Inverse folding.
């Protein structure tokens, strides 16, 4: 059993009544200091009165034909059914009577880059801004409208002065692992524009598919645009032989670039090199170092590299020449990540190149590769971005580093005075990650990144001096699409995390407040998504997805941030459906008989029918388990190793062996070397620092059992109320060397680890320092 890192906590209540009314939500939309706007503006000053927008409101603009005006007209007509009179703005002519909306660049000279000023008085709205600034002012103005349309719209009187914290605010979409059509890509771009994101990083090329037409190399899309498999199974382990793919023609690309530019979004194309290039190498195998693929090469042979030959450089220069003709972007992304250098290690050509150029190793070959491409791109007046591995072997002189493996690459690059875009996979910026640890989440990638993790990230590391901090030019969210085959899943993965990202990228840290964001402002934005038919992850109605609590009496008050959502609940252990009990808003109290358990589950269903995952709280009325009488204070565990095959840890109960040995902590790795199959029983004591409810969990490749004072803990009942002092801990573990299943290409093996979560939620591995025997 592979125990997931559940978002599961044990709360402890020994008092008679335990009431939870969450979230602690003091604010209502009426007193929200940010007026519901995402991302939070730099400054909002509320004034008195309201502006009543109606069909009679006159609109005055500098240029009735410009992009922002076109948007405004579209919004008013198609979203609000208004077709207001529009004329050229002349500051010398004062309008009298009625209401007026003015959009102008006059007075914008003093504003920061991309900044705007929005002033609403009872008779007049003025949006001052230039280019993108005016566009963002209009986006903020549009967000002030109520979600539901009526004939007259009341807007609060206010003065908003706003500008972004970072110049680069990005989102990346991978269209290689799964392909998204032009209309689908535009739908993503529209969303970015609404939230003031100004760079769309288009990951057009990867091992699983080449998606951009290159006239000089038609096989890139004809061959490289298609692959041989639909993925089956959660880990994409079982391909079939049906063709999957697609690509964008150069006309498609121009169309998307213009669509984005109309919304003040720059499109950064990414052409991966030297790795993630298998699609290109399937089309043009002569660009590999190793022999061309033959019929014996497995279909899924990812991990090859371009060979750094003159032929490769000419090919890539020709590709980039066409790419640069299509994309006006200052930045051209050249990838550079995850290059496993093995093919270069085995290549006589590369080894010879290393000798000839006096390179230390293959990392310097990658550096040479990227620097050559940079020189070519710089000569055309553009700049490169590369993933942080381009630091290895020496950074190209003018490169911007996109820090993804963690923050370290970005920090190192900033210290070398290189521009940096922070998009670490460790800080909530990877939107392909799960949104919680619950097994109910749709299949996603690797770890989980919660909304608050995304929200609370600060791209400017404290490790940088104020001077070095200037090199952090922005941040980005990345959506890799291995597990994103549909538009609904795409939207689920990015919403609402994209909203959090936009606030990280745009808003001043002093204006950020997760409680206000998640429990107040999100309401209006979810309602908008519902109205527009977007999918999104619906937050649960309880503070924790899966909780075990101890006490006699509990009161729960579930709440949903989604306007009009209903909360259904069960008391029978089933995950709630819309046929179950509907929560009526009055807190529910439970009185649990002594030594008995009761289960309360909730689920949110929005007006558009979208469902949250189900939450669960298990209430258990039992008293503290007393500490055992143990005084030896001898560190380590005893274990018994049984060198035979078991199918379940239960069988370990029937083995009698007196041979026992010592080990410092729960660790099965040393036994695996000599034993393809074995069982191990670990025994010891754990020192519990204070009375409270403690949660235990384990991670392992196979089935594992965990006991505290002889009581078995499970995924559904993972906690016990323990008195301060020593408690007996036992782990029963079995191992059988895994066999590669037919069609599978890898095995995941998780080493044995045991974890404890303290009553305050602090989770840690139970290590040598905590164990005695
Ligand atoms: C990456 O996630 N490999 C950049």
């Amino acid at each position: 059993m592979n125990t997931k890192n559940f978002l599961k906590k044990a709360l402890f209540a020994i008092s008679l009544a335990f009431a939870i009314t969450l979230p602690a939500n003091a604010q209502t939309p009426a007193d929200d200091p940010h007026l519901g706007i995402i991302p939070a503006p730099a400054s909002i000053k509320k004034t008195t009165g309201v502006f009543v927008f109606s069909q009679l409101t006159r609109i005055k603009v500098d240029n009735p034909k410009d992009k922002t005006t076109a948007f405004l007209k579209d919004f008013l007509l198609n979203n609000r059914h208004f077709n207001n009179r529009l004329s050229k703005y002349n500051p010398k002519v004062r309008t009298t009577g009625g209401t007026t909306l003015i959009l102008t660049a006059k007075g914008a000279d003093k504003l920061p880059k991309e900044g705007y000023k929005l002033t609403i008085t009872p008779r007049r709205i003025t949006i001052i801004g230039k280019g993108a600034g005016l566009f963002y002012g209009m986006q903020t103005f549009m967000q002030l409208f109520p979600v539901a349309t009526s004939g007259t719209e009341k807007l609060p009187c206010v003065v908003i002065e706003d500008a972004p914290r970072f110049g680069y605010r990005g989102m990346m979409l991978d269209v290689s692992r799964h392909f998204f059509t032009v209309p689908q890509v535009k739908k993503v771009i529209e969303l970015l524009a609404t939230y003031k994101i100004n760079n769309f990083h288009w990951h057009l090329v990867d091992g699983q598919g080449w998606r951009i037409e290159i006239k000089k190399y038609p096989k890139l899309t004809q061959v490289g645009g298609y692959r041989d498999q639909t993925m089956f199974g959660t880990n994409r382990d079982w391909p079939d032989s049906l063709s999957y793919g697609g690509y964008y023609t150069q006309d498609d690309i121009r169309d998307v670039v213009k669509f984005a530019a109309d919304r003040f979004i720059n499109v950064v194309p990414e052409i991966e090199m030297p790795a993630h290039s298998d699609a290109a190498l399937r089309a043009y195998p002569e660009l590999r170092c190793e022999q061309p693929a033959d019929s014996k090469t497995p279909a899924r042979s990812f991990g090859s590299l371009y060979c750094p030959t003159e032929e490769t450089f000419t090919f890539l220069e020709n590709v980039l020449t066409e790419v640069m003709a299509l994309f006006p972007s200052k930045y051209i992304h050249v990838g550079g990540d995850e290059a496993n250098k093995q093919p270069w290690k085995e290549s006589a050509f590369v080894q010879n190149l290393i000798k000839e150029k006096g390179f230390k190793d293959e990392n310097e070959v990658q550096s040479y590769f990227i620097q050559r491409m940079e020189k070519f791109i710089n000569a055309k007046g553009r700049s490169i971005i590369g993933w942080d591995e381009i630091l290895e072997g020496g950074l190209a002189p003018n490169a911007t580093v996109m820090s993804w493996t963690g923050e370290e690459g970005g920090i190192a690059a900033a210290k070398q005075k290189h521009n940096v875009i922070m998009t670490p996979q460790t800080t909530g910026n990877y939107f392909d990650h799960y949104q919680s640890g619950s097994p109910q989440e749709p299949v996603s990638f690797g770890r989980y990144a919660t909304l608050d993790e995304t929200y609370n990230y600060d791209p400017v590391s404290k490790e940088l001096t104020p001077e070095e901090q200037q090199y952090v030019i922005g941040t980005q969210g990345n959506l890799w699409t291995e597990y994103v085959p549909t538009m609904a899943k795409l939207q689920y993965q990015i919403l609402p995390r994209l909203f959090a990202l936009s606030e990280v990228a745009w808003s001043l840290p002093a204006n950020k407040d997760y409680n206000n964001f998640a429990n107040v402002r999100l309401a209006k934005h979810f309602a908008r998504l519902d109205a527009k038919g977007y999918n999104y992850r619906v937050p649960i109605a309880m503070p924790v997805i899966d909780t075990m609590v101890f006490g006699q009496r509990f009161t729960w008050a579930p709440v949903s941030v989604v306007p009009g959502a209903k909360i259904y609940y069960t008391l029978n252990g089933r995950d709630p459906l819309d046929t179950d009990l509907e929560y009526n808003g009055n807190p529910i109290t439970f009185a649990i008989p002594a030594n008995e358990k009761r289960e309360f589950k909730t689920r949110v269903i929005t007006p558009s029918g979208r469902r949250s995952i189900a939450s669960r709280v298990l209430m258990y009325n039992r008293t503290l388990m007393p500490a055992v009488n143990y005084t030896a204070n001898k560190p380590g565990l005893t274990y018994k190793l049984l060198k035979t095959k078991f199918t379940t840890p239960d069988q370990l109960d029937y083995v009698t062996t007196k041979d026992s040995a010592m080990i410092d902590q729960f660790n099965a790795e040393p036994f695996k070397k000599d034993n393809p199959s074995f069982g191990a029983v670990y025994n010891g004591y754990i020192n519990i620092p204070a009375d409270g409810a403690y949660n235990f969990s384990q991670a392992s490749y196979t089935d594992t059992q965990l006991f505290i004072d002889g009581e078995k803990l499970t995924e559904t009942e993972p906690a016990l109320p323990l008195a301060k002092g020593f408690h007996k801990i036992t782990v029963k573990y079995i191992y059988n060397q895994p066999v590669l299943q037919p069609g599978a290409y890898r095995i995941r093996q998780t080493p044995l680890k045991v974890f404890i979560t303290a009553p305050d939620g602090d989770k840690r591995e139970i290590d040598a320092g905590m164990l005695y025997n």
About this structure: Residues 337-338, 387, 404 surround acetamide (CB under 6 Å). The chain has four domains: 6-25+538-620, 43-162, 177-510, 637-772. The longest strand covers residues 677-688.
